[in-house]
Design goal:
By secondary structure, the protein is an all-alpha fold. The protein has two helices and no strands.
Length: about 60
């Protein structure tokens, strides 16, 4: 299978998804500032990577 994105992007997406699931459906816990900032940074990186790929493939 051809890989288009680094494995780290998938890992970060899963972490963000798990945090969201916990916040939406689990026990309400407070997310610390560092976790929130790291997740936001990783999310921006993910979006930029997908956007670059779509531009490269001329979908955008």
């Amino acid at each position: 299978m051809k890989k288009y994105f680094p494995k780290e992007l998938s890992k970060n997406l899963h972490i963000a998804f798990d945090l969201r699931q916990t916040q939406n459906y689990g026990e309400l816990i407070e997310v610390d500032q560092k976790t929130a900032e790291d997740t936001f940074k990783n999310t921006k990186n993910f979006v930029q990577s997908v956007e670059s790929y779509l531009i490269k493939k001329k979908y955008l």
